[in-house]
Design brief:
Blueprint: H1 4-10, E1 16-17, H2 29-32, E2 35-38, E3 47-50, E4 54-60, E5 64-70, E6 76-82, E7 90-97, E8 102-112, E9 118-120, E10 123-124, H3 144-167, H4 173-196, H5 199-208, H6 223-234, H7 241-248, H8 252-263
Helix pairs in contact: 4-8, 6-7
Length: 264
């Protein structure tokens, strides 16, 4: 589900010491009143427990340490330009919390004014001002950390959004035809992928690639290397050799189709 080791190190300042009844961090479910969902695979690894509304990460670092992570604070934020979203293109900000299964999106149309400048609503996109984004369907919409990260994600995405909207030209027949051909190619490739990768494999791939960004199509090349690294870091006890071999045999078009397939 998550890159637990990355979360462990990112939030290291919030860890607390813990005096456990035993040293085996995979055997603390009863003591913590929680369910083990990711055992530690080796001495330097961490164990992860589910305690209802939060995850508990347990590891050894100058003594036994415990990290509490509230589920409502674990969210992914993506901002993207959608050139073919209806009557006019728009910018979308999509938020998902895998732990709570909450998701919501905000959209606003973009258009060119008489001077050819891109406007988001009434404001120039180049101003960099983040518009109000209520996200009323999210239980954590008023969480201060979420709002801070939302603002950071918006500012980080602005250069790319400005570049993409500046390159966009409305209503071209060539663009529509190219999009139709791309969609047909994706449907064909994804139908073949569905025959090669079952639900279990798809779940593993989704977990392994959850934190990867594929804004540049070139980032889709060599997916098997990313999955192999995730396997060694997080699930070395599982046999994923056949899955990785199948990934290594994919060509570039199939890898792009696989990334799009996993987003569905």
């Amino acid at each position: 589900m998550y890159d637990w080791n990355a979360l462990w190190h990112t939030h290291q300042g919030y860890r607390t010491g813990h005096a456990a009844g035993q040293e085996d961090i995979n055997q603390l479910g009863g003591e913590l009143s929680a369910t083990l969902i990711k055992p530690a695979a080796h001495a330097g690894d961490i164990a992860v427990y589910d305690q209802g509304d939060q995850f508990l990460l347990v590891g050894h670092d100058q003594g036994l340490q415990l990290l509490h992570l509230a589920k409502h604070a674990l969210f992914d934020i993506q901002a993207r330009f959608l050139p073919d979203s209806g009557a006019e293109p728009c910018i979308e900000v999509y938020v998902k919390n895998q732990a709570t299964q909450e998701e919501d999106s905000w959209r606003s149309p973009v258009h060119r004014d008489e001077q050819g400048q891109i406007r988001l609503g009434k404001r120039l996109l180049s101003e960099g001002t983040m518009p109000p984004m209520p996200f009323d369907n999210l239980s954590f919409t008023d969480n201060a950390r979420f709002r801070d990260l939302l603002y950071s994600a918006w500012q980080d995405a602005l250069p790319r959004l400005q570049q993409e909207t500046a390159a966009w030209r409305p209503g071209g027949a060539d663009t529509s035809g190219a999009l139709a051909r791309y969609q047909a190619l994706m449907r064909f490739e994804q139908a073949r992928l569905g025959l090669r990768f079952g639900e279990t494999a798809r779940a593993r791939l989704s977990a392994a690639l959850a934190d990867c960004r594929f804004d540049d199509p070139a980032d889709c090349r060599g997916l098997w290397l990313r999955v192999e690294k995730w396997w060694l870091d997080h699930a070395a006890e599982e046999d994923m050799s056949e899955l990785i071999s199948a990934l290594a045999s994919l060509d570039y078009a199939s890898e792009i189709a696989l990334v799009e397939w996993l987003k569905k």
